[in-house]
Amino acid sequence: MKQSITLIILSVLLFSSPEGEKCKGEWKESKFWNGTCSDHFGNITLKKVNGVKQ
Questions:
Q1: In this predicted model, what pLDDT tens digit does every residue of 12-37 receive, in sequence order?
Q2: Residue 30 belongs to what domain range?
Q3: SS3 3
Q4: Residue 14, CB half-sphere, CA atoms under 13 Å: how many?
């Protein structure tokens, strides 16, 4: 019987843009997966859970 192995790589990163936006969380397959983004004032602009915008 053959067994298949699935490798999922999650990275926890902090991304900052020149405009001051910061995103902190997990990235999966080069996409923002779990975490939040905030503007330069600290206001949350985006939240994602399991790749879905909340």
A1: 667 788 888 888 888 888 888 999 99
A2: 10-40
A3: coil
A4: 3
